[in-house]
Amino acid sequence: MLEISSIDLHYGAAQALREVSLTAEAGKVTCVLGRNGVGKTSLMRAISGREPVSGGAIALGGHEITRMPPDSRARLGVGVVPQGREIFPLLTVQENLETGLSLLPRGERRIPDTIFDLFPVLREMLGRRGGDLSGGQQQQLAIGRALVTRPKVLLLDEPTEGIQPSIIKDIGRAIQYLRSEGTMAIVLVEQFFEFACELADHFAVMDRGRIVLAGASTEMDEAEVRRWMTV
To answer: How far is CA 160 from the centre of its chain?
Structure first.
């Protein structure tokens, strides 16, 4: 579904990504691990188009999207749950969810019931402003907003950051359900090692803008991965 080939990314003279290659398959969770500041969020921004790459290529379903702007990538099926959630605090829950509908054909512009099945609290709070929700509820809203667009690839950038354990479990169950549907590739950036291990089919560990370890989760050397994640 998603194929990243030897991409580089610069912020001015500073290089954030160095020849990063990654593949994400439909019905699988690819987990990107690593310490703070090693390039994980830069990778998510490169895939979504929020930062231009300076080398390499990105393809979705066999079609190159390397130079496409973010809105074009979203229309093709790239859904993003950014670090920090980035919901609209003055809009209601319903209005936040509806922001993704403009990407869809007119006949499909409705909020899928699946979102409320995964996160029942959102149905209860449709009229409440996003800024009045707890951090965990805002994270559920951010995931729901991305799912409204019916993505082919879902990018989740540290969805457990600052979230209470009960909602982390809800998010984990939602990811497992989305994987079981078999139609969506999921790229999960995480520092919560146990959460990542429960979900990952494939893993990639980053350090200093490069992927230093990668493979199937069944082949993961836990001690080696933890070594790269230790500050």
So the answer is: 12
